């Protein structure tokens, strides 16, 4: 595996100039930067190393930028939001949100693991975790800060300290809750005590701040306690053995609460998020022996890096997917160090890793990465990117919507222009835009690529606005797909009636990214008297007669061959009782003939062929590793199908490490294979009653291992039997197979 990937990387380096980028996850073979606003730059990169492909997304927020970060732990500390919910909430508070990334780790309740300060208000304690603070866009990294909360009863002189603010209560220590924790209650359970304070003057608690309080209530009721506006609730469980604190307060007591942060640099920050481990400080890996051992392996990642000049890098790497392997903690640190960061901090990752931006030409926030859950996860807190500039609808920056795309050398593609206003909201692009390419040409909104590979920057001006974009020119694609434009399904073969038409859509790819293919990029050739195809890929089958041939599709140095049958019918299936079943399966690409003109309906079904047909019927999903049978060579036409069938529990082979692909399949073996594959064919069912077998003269002859399979297929109407019975030990013919499989696929 690693050898193959190393060879792939070497080949890529010949096609695409390597870019110094990630010493951790490999040199970047694709890199694209877009300045969304002054000092606010989005970067997308693809890299390869011996472990596979990695795709990352970075935001560079420079000092003095019109965009700056804030931290929010949802509407309350308790509970989580997904990214869209968080952005909507922040917008409701008047913030102009132009991007977001996930921040701190969280409990299952959504309570952040570490510290939260929002606009100078201290909302949740660090609990021994590291933190990152922000003021005017600059970041301060703090190693396990401590915030001490000191209560002084001004009437009695009683004093005590705690460090727990707005965290889920445990049996260790006293916990303070403010109205920012939950609109419901402290959400505590079990026996305990509480002291309620009213905040005189209604001020909020700040790091290194002080509040004047009055005790309004003390109680020993168990369970949750409502908090309320301008109130604080101090509580501890009975198991904490802290009654001496409870006894230090009486209603009416005047109390001073002071907060003291051990890190003066953090205390001056307006916004603070908790974090995972600090991975690097001052350009060197930091306390690697203290890194969380559960997070060391490759995973999707979110991190922050801070450069010497104050630029803050917000970094997300996808993982757990075909398109990206993710990164280990060490690789993550090395990547950010190679990007010029001095300090590196790990944030929450895995399925929580997400980055969204206001992208030109698209409404709302666009999630630019691919979260490994396949959807947005609710998380504890976010870093939001906002600007103080309000949208005004006047175009200020210009973009090409195709920015960062691959384009085939020598091809011509249409460009779409987009514009944003001072508030980074989309607005109408000026009617007249002047576009100039460094290497190619732009005329009337059509870009003509140069004949050789490399980057091409497109400069834009119009209506007092300006901007630019980059296109990546390649000479050859590495994948080519042909789909049905109407259904979107892959076209592997075509079986059409006379005069029938189909619109073919051709797409090329490079490094798992789409390639723009314009007019003249795709060449179609028809071989045989099967019909004609136009330059747009519309194929029309011949009006009369049966014919077979093929369509050749060429694009980006690659070629696809699509076998075509027009009004075709196997000579030995005319008038046959399974004629319709075979025709249906043939047109679906599930079965082929034993020759170009014959299907062989009476021939016995082979084990390897039947598994192959089940595999095709299931859509040819990823097959996984080889099944390991000594008689199934890796290159056999049925090898992937056998691997899939073994992985799905459809077959186990015949024992002693053999599958016997050429052996004849008995009817009851065919029943069993098909029964086990029903779920893969999308068929919902319940097992049939084996008493159904008693309706057949030879029902008792069905082997024990096949009885449930046979009964279920009978109950579904897939198996009917005949006057002579089920014939379970007889050979399954190809015609019988077609009827069974076609009927099952139609359920």
Would you summarize the structure shown here?
With 747 residues, this protein is of the alpha+beta class.
Characterise this structure.
α7 (607-617) packs across α8 (639-647) and α9 (667-677) packs across α10. The chain has 11 helices and 46 strands. The longest helix has 14 residues, at 2-15. It has 747 residues and is an alpha+beta fold. The protein has 5 domains: 2-69 and 271-387, no CATH class; 147-261, no CATH class; 397-471, Immunoglobulin-like; 479-566, Sandwich (Immunoglobulin-like); 576-745, no CATH class. Strands 28, 29, 31, 32, 33, 36, 37, 38, 40, 41, 43 and 44 form a 12-stranded mixed beta sheet that branches. The chain has a 9-stranded antiparallel beta sheet with strand order 1-2-3-4-23-22-24-20-21. An 8-stranded mixed beta sheet has the order 12-11-18-16-15-17-14-13.
